[in-house]
Every structure is written in C-alpha cells, then in structure tokens.
Specification:
With 444 residues, this protein is an alpha+beta fold. Helices cover 40% and strands 19% of the residues. It is elongated. The structure holds histidyl-adenosine monophosphate. Histidyl-adenosine monophosphate is lined by residues 82-84, 114, 116, 121-123, 126, 128, 130, 132, 260-261, 283-288, 306-310, 312-313.
Amino acid sequence: MQNFNAPKGTQDLIRDEARGFEHIISVARLVSSLYGFDPLKTPIFENASLFERSVGDATDIVQKEMYIFKDKGNRTLALRPEGTASIVRSVITNKLYATNDLPLRFYYDGTMYRYERPQLGRYREFRQFGVESIGVTSIYHDLEVILLAIHILQALGFEQIETKINSLGDRTARERYKEALKEYYKPHLNAVCADCRVRYEKNPLRMLDCKVPHDALLAQKAPHISDYLTKQDEDDLLFVNEALNSLGIPTNVDTTLVRGLDYYSGVIFEFSYLPPSKKDYGAIGGGGRYDKLVSELGGPDLVGVGFAFGIERIYHILNEEKKLTEAVFPDDVFIITKGEDAKNDGFSLLTSLRTHQVRTVMAFEDKSFKSLFKIAESRGAKYALIIGEEEVKNEYVTFRDLTTFSQEKVAYSKILGHILNLIHKHDHHECSCEDCHNDKDKEE
Ligand code: HAM
C-alpha cells in the first residue's frame, strides 16, 4: 500500500495548534482594523514573472525557492512566496489607487510557499499575516506600520521584542552602495561561490546574505549602507528610531540589516524574540518601504510600506511561553444524557445554549457516564450538564464544574441563566444559585 504523508516542509494543523493559529490571525486582523486597514484577498498563485520582477531575480527566493509550474494553457505560474507583490499587483490591476483616500491600507493572511530546507521555524508551506500601506510618502506611514506590528505582537502577549531597523536608502544611495560593494568584492570574485558570482552581476546586495562560510565572513567586512545614505535617508531613519524610543519601544539600529527581497528602499525593519528555551526560530517578521515597486510593476509612481509576520514562528514562541492556553477556546459545556426523554431535553438545552453563543456539545451515543466524562475532560470542557431519569422527572439538571468537581442541582428554568452568568460574568441573567448571588452581592 502506498503511504501518503504530507509533503516535506508542510504540516497539518490539528486541534489546539489550529486554534492557536486562528487566534493569532484574528488578533492581528482586529488590531489592523483599528489602524484603518481592510482585508484584501489575492490568489495563491500568480504569473511567475510577477515575483521575478518584484522580489528580484537575484534573490534566493526567485533563484532557488519558487514553486513554478506550467498550467494546461502553458502559462508559467508560481505559488506565491510572499504577499507584497500580489497586493501591489491587485492595486494596479484593479486601479485601486484611483481614489483620493490614500494611502490604501490592506492586510492579508494566508499560506506562502518557498522551497527551503525545512528546519526549526522554517517550512515550505507557511503562513503569513501582513499589511501594506500604499500611496503616501510621509515617513509617518513607516512609523504607523511599525507601531501596528508591535501593537499586534503586544496584543498577543509578547513582552520583549527585538526591533532591528536600518535604511537601505533611496535609489541614488543604493546605486552608490552597490558600486562600493562591487569594488569591495572585485578582488575576491574567484574565491566566492558560483551563486555569488551571479549575484555580483545582478544585485551585489544579495551577496551579503550568502550562507557559505567563506562568503559570510567576507560579507562581515563589506562596506555598510549607512556610509552611503542621503541626508533625507538619515533624517528618516533617525525620526523613526527616535519616535519609537520615545514611545518606550527599544530599537537596535543594525547597519548590516539588508532583508532578503529586492524591492526595499528607505527604512527597513525586522522583529525577533528569543524564548526562554533559547531556541532560535528566526525573525518573526519584517518589512520596510518600497519606493519603486508599484511603478516597476506598471502602476503609478506610488510609495508603499508594509510588513509580514511568520505565523508558525509566532505560534511556537507563544505556545512555549504558555500564552495561548486561554486563547484556544476549550469547550465550555458538555451535555450528558441517559434515556430518550433526557436526550430530548438535553437537545433543546443544547440548541438554546448555542443560540446564546455558548460553545456546547452533546454526546448522542449511549455510553457509560464514566466514558462520557472522560470525553468531556479530554475536550477540555469547563462544565458538564447531566440529565438522567431523576433529572427529567424533577425537571432539574445536575451541573458539574469540571475544574473544581463541585456539583449542584439547577432547575430546568434556571439552567440557561446560570451558565450565561458563569460564562459572561458581567451580563445579568436571572439565576438564583448561590454562586450567582455571591457575584451579584460583590458587584453591588
Ligand atoms: P520575509 O522577511 O521574507 O518578508 O517574510 C516575513 C516573515 O515570514 C519572516 O520574518 C518569517 O517570520 C516568515 N517566514 C519567511 N519564510 C519562512 C519559512 N520558510 N517558514 C516559516 N516562516 C517563514 C516578506 O515576505 C515581505 N513580503 C514582508 C513585507 C511586507 N515587506 C513589505 N511588506
């Protein structure tokens, strides 16, 4: 029999893991909407040339990592390795820039694909949450976008994030810097790897990311972009850095930071976090400004700035730090019945609880109480409602708190209010049980 495994570098997200991912994305969406961002959904595959033009044909992503295929119409397509190019493409194809409401502020999330060597925090299919703010040159937009990223990380429970920032300068600064890199690498061209020789011709900046030990050492001694920045670039970097610091956000101005995609210009940034286990999952996110991407892809001359997070990396860190336990929404209520009449009564309670937005499940199979309690426990239910013959006859529910194991009888007429009171402590519902009375007394 053939053994079907998930393809290398991909993973199934199951139960708490899937819930954790949903939680992270929903927090990111919510915080982004507070900053005026709206969702934009684009295809998972695009014409491969879109990424060659935007991400850059000297980058590892385009050179080595793209999932490229031909469709039946002989079109060369690629699974998206990142989201920025698609958002910009969509802004252009749909003429979204034809509005006086600039910048366009969009957020997006979804799977991205890079044929990388899978390792800790590195997958071939991974998920990103990102934002792009397109159409306005003010440096306040760079600041706004960085603050949004940090706001999301804080809302998720991150406390000490390392924020690296740098500037790649405007076009003139970068051209001068590329020339300086070429000068520097020229005497070493015979010694560098074959990839670097290609990078030398296409974009010498990419030589700085080379992982081959000899070339990585050379990169350490290479000139820094900071010596080639224009006055405006320096002022912009200083402004963002000081503004962040004055808001209590520590930064690390790292003049060696270049990022792995070609479209950047101006301020760039990257976030990382070392968990107590000291496991290095790699950067949890990064981004920056892109001055020419929109026009290079055939749109008007508009500036953009954005970032993307790697959801897997964020998930692993938050999980390690036990910051997702509240967020994974364990079942609130589990209903256990014995006998047909009890099943009927249980079912109407189930419907009513769900109508009142209480997460509830019920066991429909006839199993022993013991095994049903085990199921409730393994689902992480907070409360069990038991309805047997006695309960039906006397119209009450046996209510068991599965955390404290305390148990009480609650009349059919009161059970809904009782649960709603426990779950939404501050909503007022009619319930006469001792717990709820004590709460009410405290509130008054
Ligand atoms: P990036 O730095 O290539 O930037 O990716 C952003 C984040 O995605 C990384 O910091 C990392 O957390 C995650 N990531 C990247 N590759 C992998 C992988 N193989 N496995 C797991 N996680 C990964 C971009 O993609 C830009 N589009 C960001 C941007 C938006 N810049 C401006 N706007």
